[in-house]
């Protein structure tokens, strides 16, 4: 099985431009994905997890997907993999991707057989 690539912000990053001044923060959507991965660890075997900095540009993402696709979490689907029904697949530089936690959760349900996110 080919591996999907998931881009996440590392937990506990420092946001220097926060309206609250410098403080440690985490990304709620990335934390949601980590929760799903911990609930259903079988998904980890199909993923290449890559942490990104809070600062932009996020060079690795720009190189792979272009300047317009730097959101985290973003899941880049393995070549030739079907995303299933219900996920809003986008395409960048010839790669299919999902750029929000709920669509990523739907995809995990389709590909790995885990439950779907509530309300989907």
Brief characterization of the structure:
It is built from three helices and seven strands. With 120 residues, the chain is of the alpha+beta class. The chain is globular and about 40 Å long.
- Tally of individual helices: 3
Q: Which band does the percent of strand residues land in? A: 15-25%
What best-fitting shape do the alpha-carbon axes yield? globular
| Average residue-wise pLDDT | 92
Strand count, sense and closure of the main sheet? 5 strands, mixed
CA(first)-CA(last) distance: 26 Å
Q: What's the arrangement of strands in the largest beta sheet?
A: 4-1-5-7-6
What's the Cα radius of gyration?
A: 14 Å
The count of strands amounts to 7
Helix/strand structural class? alpha+beta
Number of domains: 1
Low-confidence stretches at least 5 residues in length (pLDDT < 50)? none
Assembly state (oligomeric) = single chain
SSE string: EEEHEHEEEH
Structural overview:
The structure is a single chain. The protein is α+β, with helices and mostly antiparallel strands. It has one domain. A five-stranded mixed β-sheet has the order 4-1-5-7-6. The protein has a two-stranded antiparallel sheet with strand order 2-3. Strand 6 and strand 7 form a beta hairpin. The chain starts with a strand and ends in an 8-residue tail after the last helix.
């Amino acid at each position: 099985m080919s591996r999907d690539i998931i881009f996440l912000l590392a937990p506990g990053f420092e946001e220097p431009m926060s309206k609250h001044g410098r403080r440690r923060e985490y990304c709620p959507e990335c934390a949601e994905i980590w929760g799903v991965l911990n609930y259903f660890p079988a998904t980890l075997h199909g993923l290449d997890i890559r942490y990104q900095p809070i600062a932009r540009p996020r060079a690795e993402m720009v190189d792979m997907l272009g300047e317009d696709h730097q959101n985290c979490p973003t899941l880049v689907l393995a070549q030739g993999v079907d995303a299933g029904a219900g996920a809003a697949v986008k395409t960048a530089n010839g790669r299919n991707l999902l750029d929000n936690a709920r669509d990523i959760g739907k995809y995990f349900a389709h590909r790995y057989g885990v439950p779907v996110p509530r309300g989907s």
